[in-house]
Amino acid sequence: AQSVTQLDSHVSVSEGTPVLLRCNYSSSYSPSLFWYVQHPNKGLQLLLKYTSAATLVKGINGFEAEFKKSETSFHLTKPSAHMSDAAEYFCVVSALSSGTYKYIFGTGTRLKVLA
Amino acid sequence: DSGVTQTPKHLITATGQRVTLRCSPRSGDLSVYWYQQSLDQGLQFLIQYYNGEERAKGNILERFSAQQFPDLHSELNLSSLELGDSALYFCASSVEFGGGNAEAFFGQGTRLTVV
User: Looking at residues B26-32, what average pLDDT do you find?
Assistant: First the structure.
């Protein structure tokens, strides 16, 4: 069965320092993986997606993620945090189940950016 | 703007009542997903429709039902409402024509408060 684990429920960084949000997945076949961001009282916005092309995926707002099959990881990074990055981030795997694709969400990581 | 429209944005109703949440997917998207997001349960998948047919069910209560109409908009009906049904309800849509690479686009959500 497919699953996704976000290893940290909360991450705090100082403005201008690097961001690392960790995600591990479990999938019996080559997965499609996504990162979404949710700002307070807003909908979820796609940051980036991996679909078996380049293993290093660049997304919006300076975020990127690297797919590492050997480690079953898809960690999200950003070189320099900005105050506007404070939000909740969800790692998502697309899973085939009963003939259709479902999106399986991690439990989320709340990112706090300190001035 | 994701292109997914949800109405209403906010809904306050009393216990025991019934409400209908509406979702218009992005133009061209055939799949509609409903999710419930609450503080204690996180983001829970409720149900998926594809081109008018139910394709997958998640943690949807029997008091809840949904349908997708020929014009592809979808409605989520919540009845016999309880205090615990208070949550943010999201609709998402995707193209999903057989592969798992398509990302889901989320609406801004309907915040339901049951009093």
Answer: 93
